[in-house]
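Recap from last week: sequence in, structure out.
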Amino acid sequence: MTSRDPAGRMDPQGRLWLADTLWRIGAIQFGDFSLGRTVRNSPVYVNAKLLISRPDALKRTARLIQDELELEMLKRQRTVDPFDAIAGVPIGGLHVATALALQMEKPLLYIRPPQGAEESVTPQIEGIYRPGMRVLIVDDLAAGGGSLVTTAEELRNAGLLVSDAVVLLDREQGAARRLEATGVRMHSLLSLAVVLTYLDSAKLLREGDFDRAMAYLRREGEPRSEFD
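Predicted structure tokens:
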């Protein structure tokens, strides 16, 4: 079924389906959340990792990403370069990347971070690859972009080519700008502003949740459009 996004545009690819699904499975919460170095006292939290408990939704999400990628690669002035393999950012991005790799029948890679006494050791890339391969980075969420930038650097250090990264949700807190500075384009299926606007228009939020979350984005965010 075709729907419309909060700006009134047709949404045949189903981005709003993803926003609705994240809401229905309890992945979107409101309160006071501090996560990592970028997200501090946020009134909204999105836990996209819950998709792993809904196989049909995870599979449809992978198809949605594939459709968006293939559309962009077919354009005369393409915004996504063809790629040979997919690299998932652990932990949340690895689940999405695995589903996408299966959907597109592409090799999967991921960087295993050092642990404990191994922390001084160079992170190891798991998977089969060769220098010169072009790799698409996949993550579930993007905030400040630190893990995405680190992943791109480690892949490049191994001789792999990285020009694009895809995330399900952009929290609009600097990740796109930070990646662009390293020569990586970030594409998102949804922005946090679009999700909030959709939930508010569908009258799913408690009074005040939308206003508090949007005020937070205006203070901390970097508003941008979703995958286009």
